[in-house]
Amino acid sequence: MGKLRKLLISILLLGLFITLFFVIIENQQAINLPIYFISMDDYPLVGQYIQPVLFWLSLVFIVLAVLLLIMTIFYPKKSNTLTIKHENGTLKVQKKAVENFVLKIVSKEPFIENPRVKVKMYKQKIRIKIAGNLRKSMSIPDKQNALVDEVKNEVSALMGTTDNIKTEVRLEDERKENAAERSKVE
Predict the structure, then answer these.
(1) End of a domain among 74, 104, 128?
(2) Taking residues 108-114, what's their average pLDDT?
(3) Which pairs count as long-range contacts for 143-146, CB under 8 Å and 24+ apart, including other chains?
(4) CA-only gyration radius of the chain, Å
(5) ∠131-123-102 over CA atoms, to 5°?
(6) Which structural domain range is residue 25 located in?
(7) What is the mean pLDDT of residues 29-33?
(8) How far is 132 from 119, CA to CA, in rounded Å?
(9) pTM for this structure?
(10) Residue 169, C-beta contacts closer than 8 angstroms, at least 6 positions apart
């Protein structure tokens, strides 16, 4: 999540927080507080039962807004470049380079057809998703696990370090997904 998006979401959540805070102030007579404002009973078509409901709902929304604000501020930023600092210098690895590197490894495997690779890079983490049509065979699970381990090892070797970079690899069968979508349509 980029800085501009974080700023916009933070401003929206702050506006929601302020709005809900004033709703609580307006509905504070539902509980005993030392400050008194105009009662909601003075408004037409609003009964005495709506005040506690509005107060507690506003309180819940404020808590949710604060949690979303904290999550927005501390959400990890995706990047197209991973920078690895070492005592000899720095290494910058592009997202496309990792995708092509993994695609070359996966395309050698005979049990996966039409492989596609998507990579998400974070500050200290790489997530790799490999999708394709897997052929049916008895030894496929063993080959899948071997492929996942090989990709992890090769990407770690490409980076030159395994200490500070976490690599996750996920292999998905598109035939199962396509069959599920087709059965929903029929």
Answers:
(1) 74
(2) 82
(3) 143/109, 143/111, 144/111, 144/171
(4) 26
(5) 30
(6) 3-74
(7) 75
(8) 15
(9) 0.55
(10) 128, 130, 148, 151, 152, 155
